Amino acid sequence: HVQLVESGGGSVQAGGSLRLSCEASGYAARDLSDTCMAWFRRAPGKEREGVARIATGSGNTYYADSVKGRFTISRDNAKNTVDLELNSLKKEDTAMYYCVNQFMVWGQGTQVTVS
Which end of the chain is more exposed for a tag (fewer CB within 10 A), N or C? Predict the structure, then answer.
């Protein structure tokens, strides 16, 4: 049974940084590296937004224009996680952040609040 659990959210001031982590259970480390993973976010009153994605194999990454140059998605196969580093945070980055795999398994989310 595959589960994804996010962590690392919190409250920071504008300009600050956070590192979110998505831990996968039910995967072998090799399987996680063979799975396309993504981070989404949903702010109050707004549509869900795809933030970043990392492909299998080459590990090519994709970022929404709103976060390009500030956020970085990466895999840590040793820890069996997919991480999202958030830098130069803005108030508009305030949202619940979710990770999801290519099989549409979602985590429960972790809250990021920027003041």
Answer: N
- Residue in 82, 113, 107 with CA at minimum distance from that of residue 95: 113
Residue position matching structure tokens 């990770």: 99
pLDDT tens, residue by residue, 98-107:
999 988 999 9
Q: Is the pLDDT of residue 27 over 70?
A: no
β pairing state of 110-114 and 10-12: parallel
β-bridge mates for residue 54, sequence order: 37, 61
**Residue 107 CA: distances (Å) to CA of 21, 24, 28, 35, 98:** 11, 9, 17, 15, 6
Q: In angstroms, rounded to a whole number, what is the distance separating the alpha carbons of residues 48 and 99?
A: 12
SS3 112: strand
Query: Which residues have C-beta within 8 Å of that of residue 48, sequence separation ≥ 6?
Result: 40, 41, 42
